[in-house]
Design goal:
Elements (H helix, E strand, L loop, with lengths): L8 H24 L5 H23 L10 H24 L2 H8 L2 H12 L7 H19 L1 H4 L4 H23 L7 H19 L12 H28 L2 H5 L4 H14 L5 H17 L3
Length: about 290
């Protein structure tokens, strides 16, 4: 197995850039929802990303996923991935980018808590427990902040929180099932392929598929599917293969911070002192939880 190197300047810039893309993507999702049904847009996004991934894997030469024993785990990954993005796209249709992003990117906190309960070698240290407490306090502060609460619907906040829990389930599935026996490329293929089918199939249940899409909405959809979910996650896999996972994870606190900034700058979302305080607690908490 190739030894992963410590974080260097190129890696730090790559991680920070990817975090910025993820933060900006929340704004792009909200723009896309102006022209497409949220669930239908999520399905099309997975379909575009799957095409990018198939081209890349075909160029490198198709390889077997490895073992049929991983099939149940891969199916579970696809189901959780479908649920996560169904909830996230609906959330961004009902609440602000700022609130949805803070709730979504608290995933490392829920993962640390569940891992502490279920995985004997993942006990919380004192600094990580402190980080968990700070992040949870920040989430509560976010939910009860009157300045931003009136800008969205509470159902959107709840859906963003459920999306974060689904993301936690994906991480746990990769730890506890035989899905870990296949390459990350095949894990991503299962998630994108299953979600593309599931989300487009159930999309008619959530209203008309189209909402007068224009050039901006089509461009936003292409940005999500090709650049973020396709090429973006291939770049993330490269980072994970080259650098230590803990070093890459340390940059995850940037995504909610940058998403809030983009929501304020591009969508004129309300961001008062109380909300910034809540965001700071969440960011510091995520940083502490990901210390290892």
């Amino acid at each position: 197995m190739k030894t992963r190197v410590g974080m260097d300047l190129a890696g730090a810039l790559g991680c920070a850039g990817f975090s910025a893309v993820l933060g900006f993507n929340q704004v792009v999702v909200k723009i896309t929802n102006g022209g497409f049904s949220p669930v239908f847009a999520a399905g099309l996004r997975s379909l575009l990303a799957l095409a990018v991934l198939a081209l890349w894997m075909g160029w490198r030469g198709w390889k077997s996923p490895g073992t049929a024993r991983a099939t149940p785990g891969l199916l579970l990954l696809g189901a959780l991935f479908s649920a996560e993005f169904l909830c996230l796209f609906l959330a961004l249709d009902r609440t602000t980018v700022s609130r949805a992003s803070i709730l979504l990117y608290c995933m490392p906190v829920w993962l640390a808590l569940t891992a502490h309960l279920w995985l004997p070698d993942e006990r919380l240290s004192l600094p990580r427990a402190l980080g968990l407490g700070l992040a949870v306090a920040g989430v509560c502060w976010t939910l009860y902040d009157p300045a931003s609460r009136n800008a969205g619907d509470w159902t959107g906040d709840l859906l963003a929180l459920v999306a974060s829990f689904c993301w936690t389930g994906i991480a746990l599935t990769l730890r506890l099932s035989r899905a870990s026996e296949v390459t990350p490329e095949w894990q991503l293929t299962a998630q994108l392929g299953i979600s593309a089918v599931v989300l487009t199939a159930v999309a008619p249940l959530f209203g008309p598929l189209l909402r007068t899409p224009g050039a901006l909405e089509f461009a936003a959809l292409g940005f999500q599917g090709i650049l973020v979910a396709g090429l973006g996650f291939l770049f993330w896999l490269f980072l994970m293969k080259r650098y230590r996972a803990s070093d890459v994870a340390a940059f995850s606190f940037l995504s909610p911070v940058l998403a809030v900034g983009f929501g304020w700058a591009l969508l004129d979302e309300p961001v008062g002192p109380a909300f910034l305080g809540a965001l700071s607690l969440v960011a510091v908490g995520i940083l502490l939880v990901n210390r290892r």
